[in-house]
């Protein structure tokens, strides 16, 4: 190819993103400078965090500039290189964009990967990528689980949540998952081994509170929070003394014109509980450690990792929206090449 198709952010979404917020544009391939290499992207990771990057708001990363391609972690193959250590035909992974080609820079975020070291190369975007490392370090380091703990996971059928519940079981905990719909709840217990599944659909805070209390009458020791809103509020009403909450995401708030926020934080005082935010970027130096353990568990059949791959740059938006509709069955990935 001599041109580059790019999934461009044209305007800041107001609520749920729509087609007019984006454009699929074609530009000429760049001429490489010394220290740069050209990546032919094969797969791009689609994650709820990208919705936050589309807004002009303070965050742990700067907003995606208008007129720029949507930022994403990609895996691909080096097509051309003027950078020492990167050669044509080499597989790489890095923070790039949803586009056919990205330019990597020596000393940047893109690193070589070995496609033969994993069952399939997309596992670098799931089990061995940010998803797997978020579940591993977020749960173990932030939530500090102990055998016998009762663990509540929201967004439990998602890429991170499903792994957290499985790790909880490996460590001897009781795993309770909250998900949307009977099919996903059945998936939690039948496929991922959760002890209990709660369907949040059609339930307000009081009903969710009662549903949690029914399966955890003595309360929960750990909450791994991916959703926020009513679901977090219901979880807060079921804390044990000294409970730990790991705040991984607030997906219910990302498209909300006026976020609701948490209204039952006073329960942290009542139960002398703690809540702590987590970001996988803090653990990059330990990825080899986490990857080795996750790989060991997967090889032993203790972890099931599902990936949902949609194909084509022209399907970038509907594939991304699956994350908020709940129609994906596993880690959401866009196949580009």
TrEMBL record:
<feature type="domain" description="Enoyl reductase (ER)">
    <location>
        <begin position="15"/>
        <end position="334"/>
    </location>
</feature>
<dbReference type="GO" id="GO:0016628">
    <property type="term" value="F:oxidoreductase activity, acting on the CH-CH group of donors, NAD or NADP as acceptor"/>
</dbReference>
<protein>
    <submittedName>
        <fullName>NADP-dependent oxidoreductase</fullName>
    </submittedName>
</protein>
<dbReference type="InterPro" id="IPR036291">
    <property type="entry name" value="NAD(P)-bd_dom_sf"/>
</dbReference>
<keyword id="KW-0560">Oxidoreductase</keyword>
<dbReference type="Pfam" id="PF00107">
    <property type="entry name" value="ADH_zinc_N"/>
</dbReference>
<dbReference type="InterPro" id="IPR020843">
    <property type="entry name" value="ER"/>
</dbReference>
<dbReference type="InterPro" id="IPR013149">
    <property type="entry name" value="ADH-like_C"/>
</dbReference>
<dbReference type="InterPro" id="IPR011032">
    <property type="entry name" value="GroES-like_sf"/>
</dbReference>
<dbReference type="Pfam" id="PF16884">
    <property type="entry name" value="ADH_N_2"/>
</dbReference>
<dbReference type="InterPro" id="IPR045010">
    <property type="entry name" value="MDR_fam"/>
</dbReference>
<dbReference type="InterPro" id="IPR041694">
    <property type="entry name" value="ADH_N_2"/>
</dbReference>
